[in-house]
Amino acid sequence: MTTTDNADNESQEIEHKKLSVKNVAVNDISSTSDELIGWINSRRSMGNLDEPAPTRAQIESAIECAATAPDHKKLRPWRFIVTQGEARHELGRALLEAAQAKALQDGEELSEKTITKTQNMPLRAPLIITAVTQMQEHKKVPPFEQMLSAGAAVQNLILALKAQGFSTVWRTGLLCNEPAVKAYFGVGADDYVTAFVYTGTSPKDESKRKPIDIEPLVRFES
């Protein structure tokens, strides 16, 4: 094989690994804007989820949507770890280790009920997508912008999963950034576990959201 052939193959491989960007024209959107807004407004957090969970292809599709989040200087400070099956038990052990370390630091002792509850936290859904924020030094992108970008990515992820028929709940909690949990995910001391997105199928129908009074939330200036 020639050097040129090697270069072409490497180029094709790199291109294949790039996120595929789906450009959709406005005319190709089947829903009207009112329907789309209504659909977004219908999003609800749903706990205690069951099978089926999204497939790998569906997860990757949702992560493509997550990667379209506003991202100043294209730092891509977010990463996603998918946990399912037996790996959920390993995550449960990491959470318990974090809880025990925190209790020891606070001069407390965990009850058997708390130990069991903590270990079983990841079993509340068949699949968990963990979003982590890897902070990067950049003179034009302060840490708060990177964290907000990660939050926007998580919201895109959740909506994309909803579009594919799955329910989610965004959990974090007091343990998510304890050393044992950060170590489990390979997250640096100055970085963050931003979200545990519990994902699956809800045995219950989503309840309708009450109308939200936005008047105290917005100010118009002209």
UniProtKB/TrEMBL annotation:
E.C. designation(s): 1.-.-.-
SUPFAM superfamilies: FMN-dependent nitroreductase-like
Positions of the Nitroreductase domain: 40-200
Key word Flavoprotein present: yes
Top-level taxonomic group: Bacteria
Keywords assigned: Flavoprotein, FMN, NAD, NADP, Oxidoreductase
Required cofactor(s): FMN
Family classification: Belongs to the nitroreductase family.
PANTHER family hit by this protein: NAD(P)H NITROREDUCTASE YDJA-RELATED
Name the record gives this protein: Putative NAD(P)H nitroreductase
